[in-house]
Amino acid sequence: MPFRPLLALVLAFCLTFISAPSSASAAFVLGNERGNANFGDIVNTGQANSCPAVKSSSGGSINADGDFKDLCLHPTEIFVKVAASKRKKAEFLPAKIISPVNNTSIDQVYGDLSGGKFAAKGGIDFALITVLSPSGEEFPLVFSVKDMVADGGKSISPGAEFSGKTLTPSYRTGDFLDPKSRAKDTGVEYAQGLVALGGDDEALERENIKRDLTGNGVITLSIDSVDSATNEFSGTFVAIQPSDNDLGSRDPVDVKITGNLYGRKA
């Protein structure tokens, strides 16, 4: 084949792949769907991790009875309860979110408001987060509002607080294999070469015998702004819950999570 026709064919092939994403992206952004319409403004900005907010000038109150939906909680600060040094007692120290950076929010949580209680029933109700403490130690955790029941009264209004408990599930599933192929659900407990110890060593037993341990946390939802016309509300939250226990092989520490919240009465 002559060189020039071959070169023209290669260039045409490359231009097809260069131009195709542009037109596809334009159709995606300019579509009629709400999510697609904002895609171009949000992608790669980290804004998708944020929760909506109600204007601070909005007022009124919402009857805390019925159902709620679209509850969103965006962590802005995380603290781990550790000792700054061997001579000091454990206290909540600020930690840095290292993974994932822009995917830490809980969103689209729905549930029941009957009796003035937020009772979560489902939604994207947990997020896996890893933070770095000032000592350099990493702490994985499951930020969760699973089974949340928070009581606060008969109305959602500025200044109202709803407090209650949450469930913190295991960070790993029972099929997770550790570096020595041990897991909870596979029946593999002892790594080759360690069988002779017979599990008499307590630390080794904790590594060998994997357990699916859940935890409990506490949470307070503080309402700052309410729009009674749209049944929307926003504010802040404070949650304290345990960190990951690595299927029973390590002791969890308390983690305090603070941030912004948003929701709507259904």
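Next protein, fold it too.
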Amino acid sequence: MEADWKPVLQLVHVTDLHVKHITANPAHALTGRGRWLARKAQRLVEKWDVANWNEGTQGHFPSAPESFRRFLVEWRRRDPLWRDAPIWLVDTGDRTAFGDAASLQEGARYLSLWQQALGNCPLRSLYGNHDAWPGTLPLLLPDQIDAQRRWISATDGWSPVDWLRTPLSVPLPGGQNAIELFALDSVCRHSLGNTRAIGELDPGAVEALVARMRISSRSGVGGLRILAMHHPLAFPWERHEVRQAGVLATMRLKNDERMTAVLRNDSNDPPDFGPLMHLVLSGHTHLSHPASGLSGDVTSIHQGGLAPTQLQLVGGSLMLNKSRRAARGSQDSDTVEDRSLADFVPATVNAVRCQAQILQFMACAAEPEHLLMLRTPVLSVDGSRYEAGEPDGTKLVMSSP
């Protein structure tokens, strides 16, 4: 590493914890005959893994939270070069399997433990589509979806609007640029769409993000802008890679092409500002993307409709105990045939079940328009022990003030 690249920030990205408290049960919220019928249906669904039900409802490996905490403690002390660099802990959603209160509280406790392991660093957390479940499958209690959403939106730290008002920010050498972190809520409001894991962005929230960028433009703020959201901008990464059958594909973000155009800033609003966001962090798919071995320059990395200076990093699930079927698919190959998607082979960082990623950003006075980003995958087979994988990196292009 060249001596003039200086550490400026470490970002620990976790996603899809799928915490499942011992009391959590998808039929628990029901009563009487409805509960009996739901339990009967649940047994059949679980037995035959209907629509990959077990993929996101198995819960977390019990030993994983403490194992990951130990990894973070060791990570902090291992490299003196990064000892004084700021750290952010970022969680991009699906803290729980069913959205029940006990699991939400347990997940919050785990995040707090990891935050302490990182020296009580700043924490930002989003909710995901599973957190919006009213303690059970949304289709079973559709009338409680809105109440659940209002409740989780009011939970401390879970409002993307707060991220917008007070984004995390780290100044870069020279004082003119900064790294800033924003967020958008991508959770679908409707029970059917939520059940099918489809995401959508609220137009009002998108406009609020654009308005915030206008303020930054007028203030002459430059640097690197990071956006966190639960759903990736596109899954799969190209529209032709999934069999549509005349309906919206499962797991996909609605209007993803239009939203990608907004983040590219195709309308030039704010003018001469460049892309609204340079780096997008998400989860949701339980797959990490792109593969290890990033190109040395972000402009050489092609990702669907993103601009040449934009990059999307999708984190794998941190401690999800996948169904036998899903786990077998991830271990044997990089395909996701078990998701019934046609012609889609995603690039994964590693084929193990449990993953996180640590992003380290470095600045250099000789290249004020670039940041060097090193990405290190954090890997575990079953949550009993986490280890650092092989790092890779790329130069990110920043916006000028």
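About the second fold: The chain has a mean pLDDT of 84.
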